[in-house]
Amino acid sequence: MDEKYVGIHLLVNGTSYPLTVKRSEEQYYRQAARLVNAKLLKYKKEHEAESNEKLMTMVAIDIAFRRLQETDPSGMSRISKRLMELTKEIDDTIE
Length: 95
Hints:
Blueprint (H helix, E strand, L loop, with lengths): L4 E8 L2 E8 L3 H21 L5 H19 L7 H17 L1
Antiparallel strand pairs: 1-2
Helix pairs in contact: 1-2
């Protein structure tokens, strides 16, 4: 079955980006745009004198770093570790 595609416009750093995406992935694109805009705003406040190009590079590095950190192949991700901790707490509480 062919997945339906939808045309969307994402506003990032004041520029509209028209995209055609799978309907099932639309929410992820919109969340990604919100994440980029939020991080960009943060960096603009912290580094007012920097160019937009440098700020966008800082945003890209920040997002890539966090993604790599969460999926570190040398061990479990932080999320998996936290889930194990919570599971243990629940088990201890039940017992």
